[in-house]
Write a structure and sequence with these properties.
127 residues; alpha+beta
């Protein structure tokens, strides 16, 4: 809890103890880039200190951490496509060559979706 304002502060293992507005916007941009073109999936927007998944039918889901964001997207992907394979493939394709905030965000997405898909992920150690 924040000592100054009394808000609940959520620790995000992906972004670390301090996250800025820029971090939130970059995460939303990275996730939207990965999921663009997958019909029926919600769009990620920044809402205050968290993200909001806005569905095509007007539904919204608030997510406080990157992990929660990928869990919600995995659930939407499962509902829309029957499995997570398409999301896992897009994450794998986007991972090579990324740096800064995008790399940990994509790896967090793979950590959520890869155990659920059948295809092994090259370069990802699953011990």
């Amino acid at each position: 809890m924040c000592g100054a304002c009394g808000r609940v502060v959520v620790a995000d293992p992906t972004l670390g103890p301090r996250r800025t507005r820029r971090d939130l916007l970059v995460v939303a941009q990275v996730v939207n880039a990965v999921t663009s073109g997958l019909a029926g999936l919600p769009v990620v927007r920044v809402g205050g200190d968290s993200w909001v998944l806005v569905g095509r039918t007007g539904t919204s889901t608030a997510c406080d951490t990157v992990g929660q964001l990928w869990e919600a997207l995995a659930a939407h992907t499962k509902h829309a496509f029957g499995d997570w394979a398409c999301l896992t493939r897009r994450l794998e394709d986007a991972l090579p060559g990324v740096t800064d905030v995008a790399g940990p965000v994509l790896r967090a997405g793979l950590a959520v979706t890869a155990p659920r898909s059948e295809a092994p992920i090259p370069g990802l150690d699953r011990r």
